C-alpha cells in the first residue's frame, strides 16, 4: 500500500464536515481553504502539486500543476501531518450544502473520475490529476462534462456534492443519461460521452441544458440533486437590482419612497 491509512468520521447531515484521525507521522492532503479545525501537534504545509510523489521530478510537478490550473484549482495543496506521539484530529468542511462521500480507491480499481470541483481531501499518496474525454466533440461542446478530475491510488479520498447524492450501479451495456452538472463521479469502467439534446424546441424551451452525459456500464455512478452551478444561478436570479430592495411592504421601500418624494 502506497497511501497513508487514515481513519475518519462524518459529522452533520446537510452541512457536513469530515474529521480525519491521524496516527503519528500520518498525513492527509486537502484543497486550499477546506480546513475547518485541527488539534495542536499537526503541522500544516503548503505543497506544490498533490504530494503523491508520482509526478517524476520538477518537470512532472510543473505539468501536474498546469493540469490542475485547467480545472480551475490552485497550483498548491495543503498537507496536514501529525508530528505528535498520540492520535490527532483535523476536520475539513464542505463548501456548500450537500454530502461528503468517502471513496476507498482500493475498492474502485485504483481510480475514480469526478467533477473538477468535487475533490475535498485524501490520504497522502492519492494522485489528483485531470481526465480528458477522448472524443473531440465533447471537448468543444460538453461544458461541465468535458474536463474532469481523476483520483488514483489505493487510499481514501473524500469528494463533495450538492443536495442529495445517489449511487447507481450499471450493468454491462446499461445506459444512464444525466444532466452534465448532476454527474458527480464514476468508476473507471464506465464509458461516457456528451450528447446534444435532440429537438430545437426542447433545447430552447425545455428549461434544461443543451447537453447531457451518457454513461454506459458496467460500473458505479454517483449523481447529485443540486449542482453548485444551479444553486448559484438561482441565488443570482433572486438578488435585488442595484440601488437596494424595493419589495412591497418592506421598510426599505418606505425609506426609498420618502427620500424620493413619493
Automatic annotation (TrEMBL):
Top-level taxon of origin: Bacteria
Matching SUPFAM superfamilies: TRAP-like (SSF51219)
UniProt cross-references to Gene3D superfamilies, sorted A to Z: Mitochondrial biogenesis AIM24 (3.60.160.10)
PANTHER family reported in the protein's UniProt record: ALTERED INHERITANCE OF MITOCHONDRIA PROTEIN 24, MITOCHONDRIAL (PTHR43657:SF1), TRYPTOPHAN RNA-BINDING ATTENUATOR PROTEIN-LIKE PROTEIN (PTHR43657)
Protein name (Swiss-Prot/TrEMBL): TIGR00266 family protein
Species of provenance: Heyndrickxia coagulans 36D1
